[in-house]
Amino acid sequence: MRHVILVALTALVVVVSDGGSGTAVTLASGQQLAVELTMGTSGGIDPWVLATAPDRAVLHLSRTEHSAPAQLPGASGTDRFVFDAVAAGTTDLAATSTVRSTEERLTFQLRVVVR
Q: Can you give the CATH number for the domain in which 49 is found?
């Protein structure tokens, strides 16, 4: 029984990274969603910002975390947005960033369904 409890605790946080853009994720009310987006090598990508905030009645932003890239060639940092699934519903979120060297606009989009 202890093993089952540990598995349930692990499932409380669902992590979606850059490759999950354009997809959908389903959560249970009470779970957390962590969106982890790469800042690029050696700070070559501006920090990610929420361009479309989710419906707060469904998904509430609880905190943001930023890990700066190490001062090593090819190192990358991460912007992490952590949300709480608070009630049943469907909402979308989007984040944007810019590649400094080319001014290319990067976009991350995710649909979230809370049951």
A: 2.60.40.2020
